[in-house]
Structures
1.
Amino acid sequence: MRARLPLLMLVSCCIWSSASAQWHLGLELGINKYAGTARDTSGTHVTPHGGPGGGPGIGLLVSRNWQRTGATLRISYANPGFAVSGEGVHVIDKTTGVLYEAAGLISTRVGGIGPSGAIRIELGPALHLWNFDGEYRARFGGVGAAAYEWPVASRFVGAIRLEGAVSESWFNATELPPEFERQLTWRYGLGLGLRYRF
């Protein structure tokens, strides 16, 4: 009997852990701003900065939450375009510069607002595929976010997220003029999502 007791406890814990976990399927709309990527070091250009422009994006995600922790896989699409900017000048070409992103996030609950709202911190790796004039560039980076989740209806959860991401420059070294240097590509975003719990 004593030999079976640890096994019974282990099985009970596994069943309880599985029952307490919840799957979420969600859709997220966001607005993004980018910085970095390429910069003129000579000071001779009117628009010394070049990189992704910004704008809206859309993402699909699937997540699994336990008591305080969670794991999320998110696939997103955006058309930030290509932008050049400088003193009072900001021009975006939306005919190029499409972004596909895949991110894997681990989250932990750090607080709450009200009886059922949850504040989460998320962190994880990301893969950026940037289509620039028909040529795809793959860049690895990281994503960090703070999110607030609240119940909307019986099985629906709303979420708002403040997010930051960083990766290496989306330009190749051979395609920039010699006076330009590559920089890290930064992305800042605000997203609003709706998730279905099942």
2.
Amino acid sequence: MRFRRDTFGIPVLGGEDVENIAERFLVHVAPHVLQAPAVTPLAAIMQQLQAQGHCTFSFGRDLGSTVEGYKYLGYYDLKRKHIAIDASLSDQDVRFPFTVAHELGHFYLHGRIDPRALRAADVIRDSTRDLVTHRIDASNPRTLLEWQANKFAAAVLMPRATARDAVIDIQRERGIARNLGSIWLDRQAYNSVEYKLTMTHLATFYRVSRSVARFRLRELGILRVDPKTMPTRANESLGDILADLFSPAGPNENRLTT
């Protein structure tokens, strides 16, 4: 796929661009998730990409840590076209799907970048620190790579084409008939209870953390948060969400619900 690139070969993309690219990726590897609510089949996608010779994958190996002590959870090797996921992440760890989708973002978006953007390295190594990007720093090209990969991951795991339908399905199962496809979060007891139940069902369905699901629905305009009564959640960024999810102390939601 062709993108406009900067001098480092990094795609020049906004949020809407990444959404469109993630959808195009899904059209090729899992088109059914764009037609009706469904969990994104990461295992099948990886098998397909490997069978077609596009990318290889490895798991079960300790990838080590940075000199500061931040654990490496995954990497993408540009030359070998290889993705590795650290042995510490089992497929039942809530961080596993996001990390895999994040590395797929590097594979799909960043295969042609100049090694100078990585300080002359040919491998994009993602530690618990690298995965958390609060803002893009123009002086540090790496922050743009991570922001794009995070946006790609969220769009792949919870496709915008079907996210609202998934919410509607859950609401109908709960007997809700008003304002289908929308969620309002404030301090009112009823809204709070319905929000928590819907978010738990949705996170379980998509195999993401509740916090990532919350951010994604807010980003898509499905979840509206009252800034007067819930100011923190109204202003949180994806970086804020991932800071907790990939905290060295361990995420608050460390296992996927099955």
